[in-house]
UniProtKB/TrEMBL annotation:
Listed name of the protein: Acetyl-coenzyme A synthetase
Cofactors named for this entry: Mg(2+)
Keyword annotations from UniProtKB, A to Z: Acetylation, ATP-binding, Ligase, Magnesium, Metal-binding, Nucleotide-binding
E.C. no: 6.2.1.1
PTM info: Acetylated. Deacetylation by the SIR2-homolog deacetylase activates the enzyme.
Domain (AMP-dependent synthetase/ligase): residue spans on this chain: 97-481
Task performed by this protein: Catalyzes the conversion of acetate into acetyl-CoA (AcCoA), an essential intermediate at the junction of anabolic and catabolic pathways. AcsA undergoes a two-step reaction. In the first half reaction, AcsA combines acetate with ATP to form acetyl-adenylate (AcAMP) intermediate. In the second half reaction, it can then transfer the acetyl group from AcAMP to the sulfhydryl group of CoA, forming the product AcCoA.
Swiss-Prot/TrEMBL GO biological process terms: acetyl-CoA biosynthetic process from acetate
Residues that bind Mg(2+): 549, 551, 554
Record has Transmembrane as a keyword: no
Residue stretches making up the AMP-binding enzyme C-terminal domain: 543-624
Positions bearing N6-acetyllysine: 624
Catalytic activity as recorded in UniProt: acetate + ATP + CoA = acetyl-CoA + AMP + diphosphate
């Protein structure tokens, strides 16, 4: 992250909010924002209680807003009952929104289809009735391993309707990762597709499910429901496998939404932490939905006429909050896209904004950086070649956006008339936490600016003490908020240890380093733990290390991140083999084997960009691997520090050689 840190520290441009946005925004002007912040500070319970009553439809009203008696296992609206799917669909049925497009879906090869809220409601009900008829009920867990599709949203919403807790696994994860999640979550149902289509290619999905289930530990799975996307050839287990369209066929298009306790888990989503095993982040129905909806209204300034497009995959939290739930609860029309930004050409995003008259666009810095390069290389697909006048707000998420990329986005995509919203948040936070607001916040390129009302973000030292403006420290949230993580599925100890370490006074520890400038603006510096951020995807270094050492040829491995112009960070692996040091072509062949192995163990996103072989790793005399030194070596820099505490200083030279 060092190049980002250097460039943000010299950044002093400020872009005031546009007057028309200030006038018309849902939070209009700095004073309105400050009034909300004050309301939240003075009486958090009254603030959140008011918002929950005004924004959600409750089957049974709550009497208590926040229960802190089991902190840090906070309970929000804990005696209230509601249903998330009813809050996303049924609430619109008797309003003009019912016949408005809910999802405009575009396939990889450009076919457009759409569903209205009324139609989406019917499809969700039919599918929910189908899985209910198979005997599934509230509290069971379903794994969803699907491509970007209306069907994926139908599957998630149907689960929510019945209280089945879903865990979506990104389609790019391997069968091995899938199996681990099926086991950890104790799934009884898997919903998948035959294949997914991306960049002109069909990629099988169902075979990965078959492999995962065959690998053992998944005996609780009773059915695999398959959405027929391509009709490609797949294996079929009679009795276990069912087509999604058959499950929904002949089912009534009304299905009563089950009233659920606000704390009933809505979903579990796995994300990387600093140990080898990903954590199942558990979110609750009431708090998650409230926070998803409020941030759609506040940050994205949701208006009835908007066409909202979040380019994330439903396999990540961004696709949960800003595709499957938030925009639907807000009654927005949204665009959903099956493919990739570079197919059939690198102008795909801009062409789609033009075609669907997108007003609010939300994507990742990696996409922006790679499209910047692509537009330079292929000027015919430069954003300036498209009509992007419909845009009014553009956002960014997932990793720090460097000021250069920010300026390009602002100028070339936003045409200097749309605010760039650099939204900081995490799988654990449920929705945005620190972000500019379109009608409020003067922007500084590279800063996620100010916390949302009710979010007590701060920068502290190791003892939880506030640090001064301009000083770096740990980013924490001092008070609970409704959208927060409730638990790590099946691991209460890890939940406390990871997020509420005792030395930090009960604050929520985000795991990011950050600093605040004199205007109170937050500048995120990247992770302070062993988590990497590659193209906005979180990846634990230990996860990749465990995958590597599982290969019979590998004795030892250490993984670090290296700054990368396009992907933010790149994975660099230092590997000791169970054999003599390979050279030349042989080394390249083994490196390729190991890369493919990691792709098979975790998924292609985890593939090391660079593999270095050595006879050993740099270790202290007590045997501790000096990752700090490896990070320097990975960057191709010379180690200038004192290395006399190393057992084997000469190893650094060996590890400097790229294969
Ligand atoms: O390091 C931060 C980075 O992404 C991490 C969270 O990753 P994940 O749970 O996968 O969620 C990604 C989508 C919300 C954070 O700990 N991150 C996220 N947004 C930003 C960011 N870093 C800098 N600026 C951001 N806007």
């Amino acid at each position: 992250m060092s190049s980002t840190i250097e460039s943000v520290l010299v950044e002093n441009r400020v872009f005031p909010p546009f007057p028309d946005l200030v006038k018309n925004a849902n939070i209009s002007g700095m004073e309105a924002y400050q009034a909300l912040c004050r309301e939240a500070e003075q009486s958090p319970d009254a603030f959140w209680g008011r918002l929950a009553r005004e924004n959600l439809v409750w089957d049974k009203p709550f009497s208590k807003v926040l229960d802190e008696s089991q902190a840090p296992s906070y309970r929000w609206f804990g005696d209230g009952e509601l249903n998330v799917s009813a809050n996303c669909l049924d609430r619109h049925l008797n309003t003009p929104t019912a016949d408005k497009a809910a999802i405009i879906f575009e396939t990889d090869d450009g076919k457009v289809s759409q569903v209205t809220y009324r139609q989406l409601h019917a499809r969700v009900c039919e599918f929910a009735n189908g899985i209910k008829a198979l005997g599934y009920q509230a509290g069971e867990r379903a794994i969803i391993y699907m491509p970007m599709s209306i069907e994926a949203v139908v599957a998630m919403q149907a689960c929510a309707r019945l209280g089945i807790i879903h865990s979506v696994v990104f389609g790019g994860f391997s069968s091995r990762s899938l199996q681990e999640r099926i086991v950890d979550v104790g799934a009884t149902l898997v919903i998948t597709a035959d294949e997914q289509v991306r960049g002109g290619k069909s990629i099988p999905l169902k075979p990965a499910v078959d492999d995962a289930l065959a690998a053992g530990g998944c005996e609780a799975v009773k059915h695999v429901i398959v959405y027929k996307r391509t009709g490609g050839k797949i294996g079929w287990h009679e009795g276990r496998d069912l087509w999604m369209h058959d499950v929904a066929a002949n089912q009534p298009s009304v299905c009563a939404a089950v009233p659920l306790n606000a704390e009933h888990p809505l979903f579990i989503l796995y994300t990387s932490g600093s140990t080898g095993k990903p954590k199942g982040v558990q979110h609750a129905c009431g708090g998650f939905l409230l926070w998803a909806l409020l941030t759609v209204k506040w940050t994205f300034d949701a208006k009835d006429a908007d066409v909202f497009w979040c380019t994330a995959d439903v396999g990540w939290v961004t696709g949960h909050t800003y595709i499957a739930y938030g925009p639907l609860a807000a009654g927005l029309t949204q665009v959903m896209f099956e493919g990739v930004p570079t197919y059939p050409n690198v102008g795909r995003f801009w062409e789609m904004i033009q075609r669907h008259k997108v007003t609010v666009f939300y994507t990742a810095p990696t996409a922006i950086r790679s499209l910047t390069k692509a537009a330079d290389a292929e000027p015919a697909y430069h954003p300036r070649e498209y009509d992007l006048d419909s845009l009014r707000i553009i956002g960014s998420v997932g990793e720090p956006i460097n000021p250069e990329a920010w300026m390009w986005y602002y100028t070339e995509v936003g045409r200097e008339r749309c605010p760039v919203l650099d939204t900081w948040w995490q799988t654990e936070t449920g929705a945005h936490m620190i972000t500019p607001l379109p009608g409020v916040t003067p922007l500084k390129p590279g800063s996620c600016t100010l916390p949302l009302p009710g979010i007590a973000a701060a920068i502290v030292d190791e003892a939880g003490g506030d640090v001064e403006a301009g000083q770096g420290g740990f980013l924490v949230i001092k008070r609970p908020w409704p959208g927060m993580i409730r638990a790590i599925w099946g691991d209460p100890e890890r939940f406390k240890k990871s997020y509420f370490p005792p030395e930090l006074k009960g604050y929520y520890l985000a795991g990011d380093g950050a600093q605040r400038d004199r205007d109170g603006y937050f500048w995120i510096m990247g992770r302070v733990d062993d988590v990497l951020n590659v193209s906005g995807h979180r990846l634990g270094t230990m996860e990749v290390e465990s995958a590597l050492v599982a290969h019979p040829m590998v004795a030892e491995a250490a993984v670090v991140g290296r700054p990368d112009d396009t992907t933010g960070e790149a994975v660099v692996a230092f590997v000791v083999l169970n054999r003599s040091l390979p050279e030349g072509e042989e080394a390249a062949a083994i490196a390729k084997q190991l890369r493919d192995w990691v792709a098979k163990e975790i998924g292609p996103i985890a593939k090391p960009k660079d593999i270095r072989f050595g006879e050993n790793l740099p270790k202290t005399r007590s045997g501790k691997i000096m990752r700090r030194l490896l990070r320097i070596v990975a960057k191709g820099e010379k180690v200038t520090q004192d290395v006399s505490t190393l057992e084997n200083p000469a190893i650094l030279d060996q590890l400097s050689q790229s294969v």
